[in-house]
Design goal:
By secondary structure, the chain is an all-alpha fold. The protein has helices at 11-29, 36-44, 47-61, 69-85, 90-114, 119-138, 148-155, 164-182, 184-194, 196-201, 206-232, 243-253, 265-284, 289-330, and strands spanning 157-159, 162-163. It has a two-stranded antiparallel sheet with strand order 1-2. α3 crosses α9 (184-194) and α7 crosses α11.
Length: 331
C-alpha cells in the first residue's frame, strides 16, 4: 500500500493533486469547461510557450538558462514579415525566419560552449539584442496581410479539431520524452547538469552537448515565433515580449531544479496544465492581465523555493529519525 501511494509524496504527485483541484474548481464555476472545444482553446492561447518549454526543460536540467527565447521568437517572426513585405515569397520568408533563429542559437552556443561564458550573461544579452534587431526590421509597424494559407495554418484546425501548433507540440513532446528519458544524449544532459567535471572525466563531450542544446533552443523558439505569427496574422517588434517568464515558470514549477541535474518532462507537462487552467480560471473571473502575471511570478518564486525547502525538511526528518533509532538501540 505504501509503494502504491509513494508517487503522491513526490513533486509530480503534489502537482497532480493541485491540477485536479484547479480543474474541479473551474469546472464547477464554469458550465462547459470540460468540453473538448474549451480545452483546445485553452491550449491554443499558450501553445507557443508550451512548445518552447519542452526544449527549455533540457536547458535547465543541463544547469543552464536561455533568457533569449522570447526575443528569438520575435526576431524570427519579424524577419519573416520584413522579407515578405520586401517581395520575398512567403515560403522562403518563413524559412529565412527559421534560419534567423538557427543563427541566434549558433551565436549563443559559441559564446557558451566554446568561449565558456555563463549562459545567463549570454542569453540576457541576446534577450536585449535580438529584440533590438526585431524592432530594427519592422520599426513601429504592424506587418500583416499574409497569404490566406499561412493564416489558416495558425487559426484553423488541420487534423480533426487540432491546429498545426498543437500537432507540432504533440510530435515534439513524444520526441523530447524519448530523447531525454530513454537515450544516451538525455543521460548526458543529466550528468552534465549534476557536474560538468564528472561528465568530462566520464568522457562526455560537454562542449558539444551544450552547443547542440542552445542551437536546438533557438531553433524551436524560432519555429514557435512563426506559429505565433500565423495565429495572430500579423507581426510587430514586441511580439512574444515577456514570454520567457511563463516558459521558465512552467519548467521550474514542474520540478526541474534550477541548479540542474534533476526533473522530468512529465512534471513539466503537469505544470503546463496547472498554469493553463489557472490562467483560464483567472480570465473567466475577469482578473486583469497584470494580476495574472503577478500570480505567475509568485508561482515562479514558489517553484524555486518549495522543492528545495521540501528536500531540506525531508533531510532533517531523516536525520532526526536516524538519531531516534540509534538512541533506542543504545538505550
Amino acid at each position: 500500500m505504501q509503494s502504491r501511494f509513494s508517487f503522491l509524496r513526490r513533486w509530480e504527485g503534489l502537482l497532480l493533486i493541485l491540477l485536479v483541484f484547479v480543474v474541479i474548481y473551474n469546472a464547477l464555476s464554469t458550465p462547459g469547461y470540460l468540453t473538448t472545444a474549451n480545452w483546445i482553446n485553452l491550449f491554443q492561447l499558450s501553445i507557443e510557450k508550451i512548445i518552447v518549454a519542452l526544449i527549455m526543460t533540457f536547458i535547465i536540467i543541463n544547469a543552464e538558462i536561455d533568457l533569449s527565447v522570447a526575443s528569438v521568437m520575435g526576431l524570427s517572426a519579424c524577419t519573416m514579415g520584413f522579407l515578405y513585405v520586401g517581395g520575398m515569397p512567403m515560403e522562403w520568408a518563413a524559412l529565412m525566419g527559421l534560419l534567423a533563429g538557427v543563427a541566434a542559437g549558433l551565436f549563443n552556443s559559441f559564446w557558451i560552449g566554446v568561449v565558456g561564458l555563463p549562459s545567463l550573461v549570454v542569453t540576457l544579452s541576446g534577450l536585449i539584442g535580438y529584440r533590438g534587431l526585431a524592432y530594427l526590421l519592422v520599426e513601429d509597424r504592424s506587418i500583416g496581410n499574409f497569404p490566406a494559407w499561412f493564416n489558416r495554418l495558425g487559426q484553423q484546425p488541420l487534423i480533426g479539431p487540432f491546429p498545426l501548433a498543437m500537432i507540432v507540440f504533440f510530435v515534439l513532446l513524444v520526441f523530447a520524452i524519448i530523447i531525454l528519458q530513454y537515450s544516451g544524449f538525455g543521460r548526458y544532459v543529466y550528468v552534465i547538469g549534476n557536474s560538468k567535471d564528472v561528465a568530462r572525466y566520464a568522457g562526455v563531450r560537454v562542449q558539444r552537448t551544450k552547443m547542440i542544446l542552445f542551437v536546438a533552443s533557438s531553433t524551436v523558439a524560432a519555429l514557435a515565433g512563426l506559429l505565433y505569427a500565423a495565429r495572430l496574422g500579423a507581426v510587430r517588434g514586441d511580439i512574444a515580449t515577456g514570454f520567457e517568464l511563463d516558459i521558465i515558470t512552467m519548467v521550474l514549477l514542474g520540478g526541474v531544479s534550477i541548479f540542474g541535474g534533476s526533473g522530468s518532462l512529465w512534471g513539466v507537462l503537469l505544470s503546463v496544465l496547472i498554469i493553463l487552467n489557472l490562467r483560464n480560471g483567472m480570465g473567466l473571473a475577469n482578473l486583469s492581465g497584470h494580476v495574472q502575471t503577478g500570480v505567475i511570478g509568485v508561482l515562479l518564486i514558489l517553484s524555486v523555493l518549495a522543492p528545495n525547502l521540501a528536500s531540506s525538511v525531508r533531510a532533517s526528518w531523516n536525520r532526526h529519525r536516524a538519531r531516534t533509532l540509534e538512541a533506542g538501540k543504545t538505550g
